[in-house]
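User: Could you go from structure to sequence for me? I need the amino acid at each position, not a summary. Structure tokens:
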């Protein structure tokens, strides 16, 4: 899409909290292709998504997609893009906290761009861990090491993925090595936090899918900005990574790179357009 070229506009996440859950709406417009998309969902006891794609040329509804699988794929695609740019090309060991549906899609995507030979997975749910191990070992063709909690073995991994909805950090900074790439993709509200403040503060490169969105909605980024350990001008967006104009912090205490993703509407627009073009044969 044309975000880096200035032809796209983002409708940032609007959230309405109720006694039964949260209503979320986000979207985007691309002037070049004359299309727009809106995604909406209600997060209560369960969650599902609906994405509508429309023409800005004649206001026609082009398609409506159930967004459960689509959201997982677009989130994983954004993380894989950041991983490809920020992680070491020779990364072979991946550590994952969380063994749910988001983690599965994320690992599939990362495995497409890095030759992962060893996978460590931690989850507090033993049954979910067993299911994950059985399914993903067969799919990936590698042995998966599982544990109920994060341990010192994570300090030797090249890439760390956090895919939880925890309100407390799920990995202590002491278990993160000095030349590691961290993907934090699970938490997406101000009161959620998957990583410790020090993990962000000492990273050489800090990136997000949207500074505007994460500075309002991502607990980790809000805390880092509030503490003063990082400035907005030091944070990269995905567009910076793609263009190669990556900002590196001179006062960092490690060579680590950190990417925080909570999802933005332009990503939903991109995948909705791809699906529409594939299914209809129209560009």
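Assistant: Here is the amino acid at each position, in order:
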């Amino acid at each position: 899409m044309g975000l880096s070229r200035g032809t796209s506009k983002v409708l940032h996440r609007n959230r309405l909290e109720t006694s039964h859950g949260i209503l979320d709406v986000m979207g985007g417009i691309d002037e070049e292709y004359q299309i727009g998309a809106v995604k909406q969902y209600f997060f209560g006891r369960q969650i599902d998504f609906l994405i509508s794609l429309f023409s800005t040329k004649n206001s026609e509804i082009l398609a409506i997609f159930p967004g459960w699988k689509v959201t997982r794929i677009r989130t994983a695609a954004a993380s894989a893009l950041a991983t490809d740019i920020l992680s070491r090309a020779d990364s072979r060991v991946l550590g994952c906290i969380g063994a749910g549906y988001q983690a599965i899609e994320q690992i599939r995507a990362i495995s497409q761009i890095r030759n992962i030979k060893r996978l460590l997975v931690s989850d507090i749910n033993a049954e979910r861990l067993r299911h994950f191990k059985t399914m993903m070992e067969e799919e990936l063709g590698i042995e998966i090491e599982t544990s109920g909690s994060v341990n010192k073995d994570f300090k030797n991994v090249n890439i760390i993925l956090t895919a939880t909805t925890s309100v407390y950090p799920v990995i202590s900074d002491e278990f993160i090595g000095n030349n590691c790439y961290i993907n934090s993709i699970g938490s997406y509200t101000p009161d959620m936090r998957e990583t410790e403040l020090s993990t962000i503060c000492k990273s050489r490169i800090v990136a997000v899918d949207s500074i505007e969105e994460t500075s309002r909605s991502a607990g980790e980024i809000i805390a880092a900005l509030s503490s003063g350990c990082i400035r907005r001008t030091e944070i990269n967006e995905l567009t910076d990574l793609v263009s190669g104009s990556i900002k590196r912090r001179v006062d960092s205490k490690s060579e680590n790179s950190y990417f925080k993703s909570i999802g933005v509407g332009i990503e939903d627009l991109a995948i909705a357009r791809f699906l529409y073009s594939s299914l209809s044969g129209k560009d």
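One structural detail worth keeping in mind: Residues 165 and 187 are 5 Å apart (CA to CA).
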